[in-house]
Amino acid sequence: MIVKHGMNYLSVLNSARNHKLAPPLAVLRRQQFLIRVLGVRGENIMQESKFEADADNILRAITPVFDPNRHKGQAGKVAVIGGCREYTGAPYFAAISALKIGADLSHVFCTKDAAPVIKSYSPELIVHPVLEESYSVGDRDKDHMSRRVVAEVDKWMERFDCLVVGPGLGRDPFLLDCVSEIIKQARQASIPIIIDGDGLFLVTDNLGLVSGYPLAILTPNVNEYKRLVQKVLNCEVNDQDAHGQLLSLAKQIGGVTVLRKGMSDLISDGEIVKSVSNYGSPRRCGGQGDILSGSVAVFLSWARQLISANEGNLIISPTNPTMLGCIAGSALLRKAASLAFEDRKRSTLTTDIIECLGRSLEDICPAC
Amino acid sequence: MIVKHGMNYLSVLNSARNHKLAPPLAVLRRQQFLIRVLGVRGENIMQESKFEADADNILRAITPVFDPNRHKGQAGKVAVIGGCREYTGAPYFAAISALKIGADLSHVFCTKDAAPVIKSYSPELIVHPVLEESYSVGDRDKDHMSRRVVAEVDKWMERFDCLVVGPGLGRDPFLLDCVSEIIKQARQASIPIIIDGDGLFLVTDNLGLVSGYPLAILTPNVNEYKRLVQKVLNCEVNDQDAHGQLLSLAKQIGGVTVLRKGMSDLISDGEIVKSVSNYGSPRRCGGQGDILSGSVAVFLSWARQLISANEGNLIISPTNPTMLGCIAGSALLRKAASLAFEDRKRSTLTTDIIECLGRSLEDICPAC
Predict the structure, then answer these.
(1) DSSP string covering A127-160, please?
(2) d(C-alpha B296, C-alpha B294), whole Å
(3) Are B227 and B219 in contact (CB under 8 A)?
(4) B6, B169, B201, B248 — which has fewest CB within 10 A?
(5) How far is A339 from chain B (nearest CA, A)?
(6) A123 upstream amide cis, omega within 30 of 0
(7) Which amino acids does the record list as binding ATP (chains A, B) (predicted)?
(8) Which of B116, B128, B359 sits opposite A86 (nearest CB)?
(9) Do B123 and A345 touch (CB under 8 A)?
(10) Are B361 and A345 in contact (CB < 8 Å)?
């Protein structure tokens, strides 16, 4: 349901039209925004479950209108912390997905071994070979090296709208110690953080890293969710009360947002629970979670821009930008996965899904 | 001589030469093409026998129906042991073929030199740079290094549904010693093992590695088969009794399954012999054997899932999962090779055939 302090669309639209002080472009953009949102109403009625998010309309609402006056970076600057000797595909999938959705700049911070490979996947990414694994660091140098690694990432921190921590991170103890410090720095700088993959392995054992941070999003799959529930709620996963349990989990971690991936994605910030159930694809090839984390990073950044542009007076619900980012990211991945599967069937790979991100976004929310 | 309906090559050529209505060269080339096709079909007819497998129906029977409730990994996790300083294409072909057919995860365990290259071919693969060759290991360190290499692979072993040992493995003595240990570990964990390429060079001289292991498949080409026959049966290849000789060979190695690659693929587990003779492609570009080993790995995994789900009560024959995997893999490669050749003719490469795996599977067994 779309409301703004009891005003209906027309009155909001008129108030925008009659606004004498605003420059025409601003009014026009505001109108275009409202008109996009207006497209929603009929579909809202169709929503069956009270939990089901109005995903496509939320995606439309938070995706910015193109503005020729904007410059590089304003549509989003995202950084992925991940990529080690073993894993190079996951951080690439997350970082390139962010660009394919519309981010202007996408960085990857990975180990020295992983950097040339990730760079070779695409010239579009900015890849920083700054992380280190135990095998390349002597015990004596660890403190010094750790400070250097964290400083290397920190000097970029302020530029990023969102951090994705975990795709292809691996589980090297020294590397994870450094990443813990990077998470603390990001939190200090109030940068939103999406934790996925091996980042969840780290955080589940160190909940203090994200606990109570409203700009943190955890995106566990079946097994990662099981570990999280056991650790935080000290019980087993209860699918009879999936919504209630997810709500308690998110609340227990101090209001972080948890996106539980599954046949339906369930999302909660400890206040509300929403689900995204649009049919995606039955293929479960590895890498789809990385597309999701990169997508959520972009949509979360856009949602925060929208909220600050509207001084918090959002005409969509929910109003928590982390919830909005998760809902839009989940909806887009499902749409792209279904388009890729239509075309490739059993041979669908993650790169095929990434190739469908642009068309999916255009289908839901045309650029112009 | 190639004969059809009593017409021989010479008379067909003459009829072409005497043809008045078309330019002689065009007619001649057309006739030569027809003769090639007719020739092959003629030979296929001669091969069709009680031995010919009902390949397409077997492929349909073992390929799982999609289930949205399944999660990542349940459609198959395959590992290829191969890739060294000299060879990087072969393990890539095997591993990517497994994904293109429908496996969820595909790993490669290769040498440190080979890893960045194999990774760069595709972000979809998980590539572990863990194998070592003699040139990089001092004599003193060999025992310690060997234990480390085997342990690095072994810690992943339980996760895999099937191992492919050999594509691009090379023949370095130290590396092959480590791979012998890896084969022993896989056998201990009852993981199916497909032995191809340089893996066959290793196994032919160390038959004890696979002898008596019912989950082992050997996939020799003409020369590898010749060596195997000489070593095991102590005689030359006898094409007059190809089926009988293959049966004895597989029985002699204690009931492993042998897929003899040729114009018709012959497959035996020492109990029965089956052939797959669908027409594939006349191109013999290197790498097709790697597609086959990766494909057999996936179909074998699916066949085992089907058998355990039905508690052994299969309505298809044969019922040995290694036979089923070989038959389905052979049929799919032949279909993909023929589609690729239709499109690319003389310039058909292995990557073109891999690109046709999905369409071939869809033609035989539509996803939905």
Answers:
(1) EEEEE--GGGS-GGGHHHHHHHHHHHHHHHHTT-
(2) 6
(3) no
(4) B6
(5) 14
(6) no
(7) 261-265, 280-289
(8) B128
(9) no
(10) yes
Higher pLDDT, A343 or B18: A343
Is the CB of B105 inside 8 Å of chain A's CB atoms?
yes
Contact (Cβ atoms closer than 8 angstroms) between residue A301 and residue A162: yes
Partners of B260 in the beta sheet? B266
| pLDDT-based confidence at residue A317 (cuts at 50, 70, 90) | confident
What distances in angstroms separate CA A276 from CA A113, A228, A273, B159, B368, one per listed residue? 38, 21, 10, 30, 23
Give the pLDDT confidence of A154-170 residue by residue, as tens digits.
999 999 999 999 999 99
Contact yes or no for B333/B353 (Cβ under 8 A): yes
Assembly ipTM: 0.84
pLDDT along chain B (368 residues), means of 10: 37 40 52 48 53 94 88 90 97 98 97 97 97 90 93 95 98 97 98 98 98 98 97 97 97 98 97 94 91 98 93 83 98 97 95 97 92
The answer on whether A254 is annotated among ligand-binding residues is: no
A213/B contact by beta carbon, under 8 A: no
As given in the structure block, the two tokens for residue A365 are 């929310």
Cα(first)–Cα(last) distance of chain B, in Å? 45
Burial of B306 (0-12, 13-18, 19+ CB in 10 A): middle
**How many Cβ atoms from other residues are within 10 Å of residue B348's Cβ?**
22
User: Can you list the alpha helix ranges (DSSP code H) found in chain B?
Assistant: 9-17, 24-47, 55-62, 89-101, 114-121, 142-157, 173-188, 198-204, 222-233, 242-252, 288-309, 321-344, 350-355, 357-364
Residue B346 corresponds to which tokens in the numbers above?
């003389």
What pLDDT does B113 receive? Answer: 94
Q: In what order do the strands lie in the sheet with A162-165?
A: A126-131, A105-111, A77-81, A162-165, A193-195, A216-218, A257-260, A265-268, A273-276
